[in-house]
Amino acid sequence: MTNQAKKILKQGMEWSIEKQSKVFNNNFITRYLYNAALKRSRETSI
């Protein structure tokens, strides 16, 4: 494998890891907000 190919592969892997962590963080925040809203609606309905 050439150095150029290795560099491209490495960048691609780093990019996908970064993208996955961004998606995970967004899902985590969404879930947190959803749970908070659910809890609030339960408290008001009681």
How would you sum up this structure, described in words?
This protein is rod-shaped. It has one helix at residues 3-45. The chain has 1 helix and no strands.
**Beta-strand residue fraction:** under 5%
C-alpha Rg, in Å? 20 Å
What would you call the shape?
rod-shaped
List SSEs in N-to-C order: H
Give the end-to-end Cα distance, rounded to a whole number of Å.
65 Å
The total of beta strands comes to 0
The tally of helices reads: 1
Biggest sheet details:
none
What's the helix and strand layout?
Elements: H1 3-45
Using brief descriptors, characterize the structure shown.
0% strand, 46 residues, 1 helix, mainly alpha
Structure summarized in a few sentences:
The protein has 46 residues and is an all-alpha fold.
